[in-house]
Each structure stands twice: as C-alpha cells, then as structure tokens.
Amino acid sequence: MHTSTSGMGEFSLSVLAKARVKTDFTSINLCDYVELHLGANPGTKRVELTQQQLEFAINAHRNGIRCQCGAPIWIVGSSQAGLGCFACITGQAVPDHDYEIALADEVTTTRPT
Ligand SMILES: [Zn+2]
Predict the structure, then answer these.
(1) 51 CA to middle of ligand 1, Å?
(2) Which of 1-5, 33-37, 68-72, 79-83 has the lowest mean pLDDT?
(3) What is the per-residue burial (b if ≥16 Cβ within 10 Å, else e) of 56-70?
(4) pTM for this structure?
C-alpha cells in the first residue's frame, strides 16, 4: 500500500501561525514574584506590594479594565507604574521575557476574610 503525503502543507501553515504570537512574557506565580521583587527592591514593604500594588492591578485585570490603548493591562508593570499595557508602560513594542503574574495560581492564595 502506498500512502499519499499530499496533506503536509497544512502543517507548516499552523506552525507559522504560532510563531506570530507576539507576547513573550515569562509566567510567574504571584508568590514567586513577590519574593523576587522584594529581593530586588529591599526597601519595599511586603504588605504594600502584595495587598496594595499587586492586588490593585490584579483586581483591575479581573474586572476587565484595559489600557487606554485598548490592550490588556500588564499586571506586573501596572502594580508599579499605574494601570497600562506593556507597550504603554515600557515604551517597548513587545516583552522580552518580562515577568507576568500567572493568574490561575493566584486564585488559591486569596483567602476569604
Ligand atoms: Zn497600552
């Protein structure tokens, strides 16, 4: 039996489509990011960072608030610089392995009061 290989072209098309995804964040858990940020910024108070800055940006993201340009907000940057997307906050077109909070894991760290 001889099998035809005429379907090969469709595979390379889907690979190209994947390569066009332009965001290139490094996903990080909220807890890991807090440790990283506090390590890099010794003057930062943990409570201020987690309960004010990050929570503010995460809530905004959850509520569907977007950057003034219409793009989704960048939580890590928004917690420090005010709500905005990566491009508007940094002036760079695309992230270069900059950190972004992985929200799926963050849910479990929020305790009801
Ligand atoms: Zn923007």
Answers:
(1) 24
(2) 1-5
(3) ebbebbeeeeebeee
(4) 0.71
Q: What span, in angstroms and rounded, lies between the C-alpha atoms of 71 and 100?
A: 15
CA of 83 to the centre of ligand 1 (A): 9
User: Three-state SS string across 30-91, please?
Assistant: HHHHHHHHHHHCCCCCHHHHHHHHHHHHHHHHHCCCECCCCCECCHHHHHHHCCCCHHHHHC
Gap from CA of 88 to ligand 1 centroid (Å): 4
pLDDT digits (tens, 9 = 90+) for 52-111: 999 999 999 999 999 999 999 999 999 999 999 999 999 999 999 999 999 864 444 445
Q: How far is the CA of 70 from the centre of ligand 1 (A)?
A: 6
Q: Which two tokens stand for residue 20?
A: 């066009």
Of 113 and 47, the one with more pLDDT: 47
For ligand 1, a single-atom ion, the residues with CB < 5 A are: 67, 69, 71, 85, 88
